[in-house]
Amino acid sequence: MKKVLVSDDSLIVARKLERIIGESGDFVFVGHAKDGAEAIKMNHAHNPDIICLDMNMPGMDGLTALRSLGVLDKEVKVVMVSSLGSAEGRFEEALKLGALHIISKPFTADDVLRVLRQL
Amino acid sequence: MAVKLFGQFLLDQGLVTREDLLLAISLQEQRSPRLGDLSLAAAHLDEVKGRGRLTLRDLAVAIEHLQRADVSGALGMAFPAQLTLGDLLTDLEIMTRNQLNAVISNHSTRYLDLGQALVVVGAISDDQLRASRQEFNRDQARYTAERVALPFDIVNRPGWEVAAGLTRQMIFEVFNRPSSPCTCREITSADANFMMAAMDLSGDLEGRYIISVSQKLQQAVARVMLEGEQLEGDAEELLEDAVKEFLNVVCGNLVAKYSQLGKVVNISPPVTLTTGNDGLRIPEGHVGLSFPVELGDNERMELILLVKCAAEKSTKT
How many CA atoms lie within 13 A of B262 on its CB side? Predict the structure, then answer.
């Protein structure tokens, strides 16, 4: 099963993603990072296949973390999960920095699993 | 279930790949006009500010429009004292009116929107583009916000009317309830409630968004956010986080909607407001607008907007 790391400053979003991933049957939740810096550390520790990364977080934000991950780990696949994903500049920047997809909030289990299964 | 850009919609539908989008964006950027002369405009900024007509933020916003290749939007922006960027460039003799007209005309013939660029790079056909645009318009029709009439003298009133309408629609969307009519009233203070969460907006909309909820409604928000999952012992932090994230989702979609309209709005992270028993006083120089949102079962969420007064009004008060 593919390992998924979630990085979001919102506890409620992390909890929802943990449940969706845990109940999917083909992905396993490996941890929750509360900001971009923690996501980079946990990526090193858990070696996930996929990171679900929030764009707007206090401390190191998602786009900064995405830029670092692009240098540090060429293998991990990153999906942005954000209510700001549809703001034009951020959408294009995330794609250019290597994000494979952007899931807009609010999302359903189907929205998330459809994207994760495409990767 | 969210405001989306056309490119994101195509990606979601599996009609294009990320690589297709990157190719198309790259082509758009090649075709975008280069107004390097704007750096000269920045160099003249002190002189312009001396005339009290243009702020650094005004210019930054204009440049942001240009970076997104929205030349006509940027050149048509109305600055304070009815100055436009086009006026600025010609006033400072950075461009003549003829050169300016040539830029606009050149832009309109060369600029490709994302859909056209995807056709040029061979990702989709003309027919697929036409069908996708129709499907996209149907999908996003629900976010063509009704305007909530605001009978008050506030800065950027039409923008706030759209914002209030869209916010109410997002609330009903998240709660999966039919939209109901809304009344708006001006307030000088907001009653205390179990919890208030706030986000600050800047850019093309400047003000503060506040959502005020009862304890029962706070739990209802958490249930909606978790799609029915019951919370247990560690719930207090999660319940508070649920309201803040709910506000984040509503405002984030508002930012996305403004982006579709070529406007730039920035939001700060959501915070919990501590108001005490006296409730929330509306700060000087601002208008407080209250929108009660009926959610059934005798539950009412209150949306409060703190918006700057128009210049004439703020000098009177």
Answer: 16
